[in-house]
Every structure is written in structure tokens, then in C-alpha cells.
Amino acid sequence: MERIAPTTPPDALPEVSGLLNGMPRQRVPEPAAPRKRALRPWRVLPTPTGTPFTFTFAAVLAGTSLILEYADPSLVHTLLQGSSTDVAHLVRTPVFVLLASALWVAGGLVSPYAIGFLLVLTALERRIGGARTACVFLAGHVLATLATEVPIGLAVLVGHLPDSSLHRLDYGISFGVATSVGALAGLLSPWLRWALLCLFGWMLVEDLVAFADPMSNWGHLIALGVGIALWPAVRSAG
Question: Are 175 and 182 in contact (CB under 8 A)?
């Protein structure tokens, strides 16, 4: 017959109520402090991997600028004349001249629009990608060119301008850069957005008032407006 051990009475058990107080408290993990983003000044300039479109385009512009600087003047004139988006060329070879005219920098690599090209298109491409940046640039370049050259053709047709206006030399990246400025402004915070638009817009209005090249000056304002009109598209992409 199995023996059953006697049950220990409750009052004989050791006192353990105070022992739990001696257990070490669990450490509550402190929330990690937000890491500050390191300043990377080189991101304002194009790179082959980060901004391939802007980097490649800038390399092409550097090459054509060297041609403008060091090639024979007669060759330079022939190249620019063949790339010009004047009315005569737009009627004969519109696609070719609309593309070729954007491969030259009026004023060279130290011109304001060349510097603006590097800074603005780099910032825009980092936000919306290379393909969309190319579309923004090309849209402004094409639309502003047509908006300024078509009226010239109509004015010649009705006799308000001489036939020589059909061969007005017109090339450069300024329309595309102006459109890119307008598009980039839509991706910035309100203070930066309106500061950029006011500063750049004021510069364009001053050029227009100076009346040195009114058709190009109007084209820059039109191009800026095209960039602003693209805000819904670039915001959805960014």
C-alpha cells in the first residue's frame, strides 16, 4: 500500500512576498534619437549614377561649348545656323532642329543658364527621375520655341516683319532650364517655392523690360509658365 506524504501546513511555508521586490527592474528601451541627415554638398551636382540624364546632357553641353570656343568661326556659324529653330528650319526639319538647338549653350559654360542647368536639373532629377526630367525640359524647350517662332512666321506672312526674320538665329537651353525652374518650384516648401519663383520671375521681367531680345524674353516667361503648369505631373511623380 502506497504511503502518502503528509501535507505541509500553509503556515509552515517560507515567506516569499518580500522576495519579489528584490528582482531587478526591467529596463524600458529609450526611443532612439532621430539621426540627423548628413550634409552632402556634392548632391547639388550631377553624378553618373545619381542623375544620369543631367550628367550625360551636361557632358554633351561641355563638348559643344568647347567647339564654340575653339573651332573655326565659319564652322561654328554653320553648325549654329543648321541647328537654329528659326521659322525656315521649323518648316523644313522641325524635329531635327528642335533637338539639335538644345545641344548648345548661348554664352558658354559660365553663363547663368549653364549654371542653372546643373543645379536645377540635378535637383529635379533626384526628385522625379531622369525620364520625367527629360520630358519636362523638352516640353518647355519645344512649347516655348513654337510660341515665339510661330508669331514671327505669321507676322512675316502678313507683312509686319521682313523675310529676314524667318532666319533669326535661335538656339540654346534657356527655355528648358526656365521650365525646369518652374517645375522644381512645385516640389519645394512654400517659402522656398515662392522665393524661387519671385527671384527668377523678376530676373525674366527685367530682361524683358530691357528689350534687348523681346522674343526670347517672352519665351523664357512662357517656359516658366509651362513648368508651373506641370506641377500636378511632377508632384505625382515626386
Answer: no
Can you give the pTM of this predicted structure? Answer: 0.82
Name the least confident of 4-8, 77-81, 153-157, 226-230: 4-8
Residues in the chain: 238
Query: Which one has a higher pLDDT value, 37 or 86?
Result: 86
Residue 49 grid coordinates: 549614377
211 CB burial (10 A radius; 0-12, 13-18, 19+): exposed
Q: Nearest-CA neighbor of 68 among 108, 116, 110? A: 108
Mean pLDDT in residue range 27-39: 56
Close Cβ partners of 103 (under 8 Å, ≥ 6 residues apart): 60, 61, 64, 83
Write out pLDDT tens, residues 46-72: 999 999 999 999 999 999 999 999 999
DSSP structure class, residue 212: S
Check: CB of residue 184 under 8 Å from CB of residue 141: no
Phi-psi region of 121 (alpha: psi -120 to 50; beta: other; left: phi over 0): alpha
Query: CA–CA distance from 22 to each of 18, 19, 25, 105 (Å)?
Result: 7, 5, 9, 79
Residue 76: is it exposed, middle or buried by C-beta count within 10 angstroms (0-12/13-18/19+)?
Answer: middle
First to last CA, the chain: 85
Measured CA to CA, the distance from residue 62 to residue 56 in angstroms comes to 10
Per-residue pLDDT at 161 exceeds 60:
yes
The number of C-alpha atoms within 13 Å of 159 and in the hemisphere containing its C-beta is 0
